[in-house]
Design goal:
This protein is α/β, with parallel strands linked by helices and 262 residues long. Helices cover 21% and strands 29% of the residues. The protein has 5 helices and 13 strands. The strands form 2 sheets. Strands 1, 2, 3, 4, 11, 12 and 13 form a 7-stranded mixed beta sheet that branches. It has a 6-stranded mixed beta sheet with strand order 5-6-7-8-10-9, with helices on one face. α1 packs parallel to α2. The longest helix has 15 residues. The two termini are 31 Å apart.
């Protein structure tokens, strides 16, 4: 069995801080850790510094999303086999939309785990069809257990992807909306599913941003600058146990600074 921890979108310095302080304390519980780094650098994208912090904290694989190209530095990181950009970008896009890892699990048994990142299209920038991209990927041999980080806005699209891949992959876990959902379950055929893992960043915020900016925009309908929120940060994620390529257990994970022992 493989015990996998997936950590939702790391947002800015507060997200990196709570990840760096908390993840090392729980890393020994898991055989493999996946972290979405989509918002790690100032709330948008990934740079060399934030990638280094995430991997030093204990991430074995880092996934991206719609802000993948926000920082030019990311192009110098794409050859790192721990970094996965969206699968359904056009052919020829730098980097890879999936990576396979041989992971030593329970009892020292090595199992293959393939981590995939894909972008949704509803209310998102146009890109290639993620459903067909997954079909093409799953036609390839030797993937082992497949874990999909589906970075999408619409809950319906995420639910549809879960049902489409039920019994074909080990997990479909959504990211992007930064709000953890209460639909954690195992679909038919052994596919762990949650619409959104939630995010890892400032708890007293508007999905990561200091409330002043979003509130001003909503109340005045005028442009307002968004900055990363401050204060105690939370870490949200999903734990998936995998046997023979399918999920046998799934649960939400949550930790918040200042609430230790509460």
């Amino acid at each position: 069995m493989l015990r996998v921890l997936f950590v939702g979108d790391v947002y800015g310095k507060p997200g990196r801080r709570v990840l760096s302080s908390h993840l090392p304390t729980i890393k020994s519980r898991f055989h493999f850790i996946i972290v979405n780094g989509e918002n790690a650098a100032g709330g948008f994208g990934l740079n060399r510094e934030s990638f280094g912090e995430i991997t030093r904290a204990g991430a074995d694989c880092v996934t991206l999303g719609n802000h993948a190209w926000h920082h030019k530095e990311v192009f110098g990181l794409l050859d790192d086999p721990r970094l996965v950009r969206p699968l359904n970008f056009p052919v020829g896009t730098p980097g890879s939309g999936y990576q396979s890892f041989d992971v030593k699990g329970e009892g020292g048994v090595t199992q293959r785990l393939t981590v995939v990142n894909a972008l949704g299209r509803v209310f998102m920038d146009p890109t290639h069809n993620p459903f067909l991209a997954m079909d093409e990927l799953l036609s390839r041999p030797d993937l082992g257990a497949v874990f999909l980080d589906f970075h999408a806005e619409a809950t319906s699209e995420k639910a549809a992807m879960g049902q489409y891949l039920a019994g074909r992959v080990a997990a479909v876990i959504g990211t992007h909306t930064h709000v953890a959902t209460a639909d954690t379950r195992i679909l038919k055929g052994g596919t762990a599913f949650q619409t959104d893992a939630g995010f890892t960043g400032p708890a007293d915020s508007v999905i990561g941003a200091d409330p002043a900016g979003p509130v001003t925009r909503f109340t005045t309908e005028m442009h307002a600058r968004f900055t990363v929120g401050e204060g105690d940060a939370e870490l949200n994620g999903v734990i998936v146990h995998i046997e023979a390529g399918r999920a046998v257990h799934v649960e939400r994970y949550h930790f918040q600074e200042g609430q230790e022992g509460a």
